Amino acid sequence: MSGVSLMLAGPATGLVHIFDQPFMRYAFIAGTAIAAAAGLVGYFLVLRSQVFTGDALSHVAFTGALAALAAGADLLIGLYGACVVVAIAMAALGRKGQADDAVIGSVFAWILGLGALFLSIYTTSATGANGTSGVSVLFGTIFGLSPGQAVTDTAVSAGVCLAILAIGRPLLFASVDPAVASARRVPVRTLGFVFLGLVGVTAAAATQAVGALLLLGLIAAPAGAAQRLTAAPFRGLCLSAGIAIGSVWAGLVIAYSAPQMPPSFGILGVATLTYLLAFALTSAAKPQVALS
Amino acid sequence: MVTELTAAQPGLSWNLVEDVRQLLLYPFMVNALRAGTIVAVVAGALGWYMVLRRQAFAGHTLAIVSFPGAAAAILIGISATAGYFIAAIAAAIVIAAVPRSLGGRARSSESAVIGTVQAFALACGALFVSLYGGFLNGLTDLLFGSFLGISSSQVLTLLIVAALALAVLAVIGRPLFFATVDPDVAAARGVPVRLLGTIFLILLGCAAAEVSQITGALLVFALLVMPAATAQQLTTRPLVSFALTIALGLAIVWLGLAVAYFSVYPVGFYITTFGFGGFVLAAAGRSAAGRVRALVASQGLA
């Protein structure tokens, strides 16, 4: 409540006390780790043209979370379990660890239908639940993270970041030129599996922050912007993670000063704006390069 | 509403004629079947081209943006139908404006654009719903569909838009097929490949907006992709698979609506499940047939 009165006194005075609220501290800590993981994973996802797979996983996250809720289990178990299992199944479905568009589309359309079933089971069950949990899974509740969830998400995201950095070099090689990489004995197929598994974990963690429907933005927009701004892979990776973290911070501050706005919208808005700026910058810069 | 229905309906019996009579007892169900039929034909026809052109991701995004469109329309107080169509067509034009130039880097950059458009559109939807406030049941309907409240005037709108979209598709169908199968040769022969692509995306947007009024924004994609993917598993001949796509779409929608009428679970679940079941059967049948053919061929050689 004190936050509201402070904001009435002026947004700037309110922002000084932004870290006085425990929910704000959890949101910032977990949000930073999740954004870093999403930025790193997203960079490779865009590079490998697998954004559609990320899209599919975001819907799996919704169904997994609601299946856990409908069965009365912990939401996190369903979320992480479903995402990782489906990610690895998708890698197995496609040849060379990349599945076909129509196959992915059919699978995730059905999984979303299952999600609708679980939503209806959960909301009509006798536990006294209402429609809000379905909505919060879809659109995220970063301000509602419990301390336990915040710690889990931060630890998992930090693990994803470390794993991506560890396999970064061979994964980059395998993504850019799979044929040469496999000739040089890089385990291209295994890397594809491990990578999609990491994407699944990231999707599950990001569902907590921005929601199942919006996590694609946190994955695709910073990575797309970074790839437009630089062609150097490791600079691009850092830039992608940086833009993702910046979007989350800015989005949280915006949502804090304008409580009408859902935090997910603030985060996605900033990320989209950054992408648009990168787009405008590079298309303005290109003709000059051609002239010189 | 639900309790009333369950009280009024005696339930399924083995007498098929009796079941169909029950199905057509209420006007809302007749309207739902009419709307479902229109939607299945449009979604099948455009979905067939979508799968062939490998634009499933763009189709999914067009399906999704109808949600913020409808939410915005309800927020400012105009009809949700208008919101569906305006949003889907606007998004189609944005996606078409992104240059589809050749090369892997352009392709990956295009998918990043589509992903960003989609996520931002959904975020806008969340914002509109939050600004409108206290509208959670409506939100679930927008996302997952409801076949209970379709009015006769809505059916008429669906029919008019569907007829227009199919007429345009009939005109551009042949050159579009050519441009899809071999864009380079088509461009060399003077076919306006880029323009056809734009028109196609706008038609796809119309189809997505139509379907989302029945199945909800999140499940549109099932009707766009599943019948087409199944038909293209079964045959490679264009006309046969096109006809098969529409037949499969109709069967999925009719079955889904009929089963949902007799049960308490959402129609979207049944439509996606029947579609996916058909797809799995077709894929399994094809791989089995391929194995048998290989076996016969090896026997014949030996």
Structural features, described:
The complex is a heterodimer of chains A (292) and B (302). Chain A is built from 13 helices and no strands. Chain A has 292 residues and is mainly alpha-helical. In chain A, α3 packs antiparallel against α10 and α12 crosses α13. The N and C termini of chain A lie far apart (59 Å). Chain B has 302 residues and is an all-alpha fold. Chain B is built from 13 helices and no strands.
User: Any idea of the CATH class of the domain at 21-213 in chain A?
Assistant: Mainly Alpha
Oligomer: heterodimer
Order of helices and strands of chain B: HHHHHHHHHHHHH
How much is the average pLDDT of chain B?
Answer: 82
Question: In total, how many domains does the architecture of chain B comprise?
Answer: 1
As a percent range, the share of helical residues of chain B equals over 70%
The CATH level-2 architecture of the domain at 21-213 in chain A is identified as: Orthogonal Bundle
A few lines on this structure:
The complex is a heterodimer of chains A (292) and B (302). Chain A is an all-alpha fold and 292 residues long.
Q: Keywords, please?
A:
heterodimer; A: 292 residues; mainly alpha; ABC transporter involved in vitamin B12 uptake, BtuC; 0% strand; B: 302 residues; disordered N terminus
Question: SSE layout and pairings?
Answer:
The complex is a heterodimer of chains A (about 290) and B (about 300).
Chain A: H1 2-9, H2 11-16, H3 22-47, H4 51-71, H5 75-93, H6 101-124, H7 132-139, H8 147-176, H9 178-183, H10 188-210, H11 215-229, H12 233-257, H13 263-291
Helix pairs in contact in A: 3-8, 3-10, 3-11, 3-12, 4-5, 4-6, 4-10, 4-11, 5-10, 8-10, 11-12, 11-13, 12-13
Chain B: H1 2-8, H2 16-23, H3 27-52, H4 56-76, H5 80-97, H6 104-132, H7 136-144, H8 152-181, H9 183-188, H10 193-215, H11 220-234, H12 238-261, H13 267-301
